[in-house]
Amino acid sequence: MITTAYDEPQKTLTFSLDTDLLSSNAERAQACFERALANPQPFAHLYVDLCRCKMVDSVGLNLLFGLLHRAQELGAKPTVRVCKGALEHVMRVARVDKLFGVEVVMPAVAKETRNNP
Amino acid sequence: MSLPAHPPKVLRLGCSGTNRNGQKCLFGIPHINYLRNFSRIEWEPELLGLEEIGMGFSPTLVAAPGWALAWLKSVECTKKSFWDVPLVSRAPFDVWSHLPPAPAGLVASEGFVREGGFVNVWTERHATHVVWGKLREDCAASILAFVWLQNVLAGGRHWRRHELGRLPEQFKKHLALGYLHLGLPNEPVEAVSLGLPRPILRRKDGELFYAGDWIGVHERTQKVTRAQLGALVLPELEPCLHERLLTFGKNEKPSDGVVWCLEGVGGPGMLALYSSAIAARVDHMQDTWERWMNDRLGMMDADKRSELLLCVREAVINADEHGCRSVRGHRFLMAMQNFEKERRVRVRVSDPGLGHAHDVNSMMARQDQMMGRHLGLKLIHGIAQNMSFARHGATLQFDFHY
Question: ipTM of the predicted structure?
Answer without folding.
Answer: 0.90
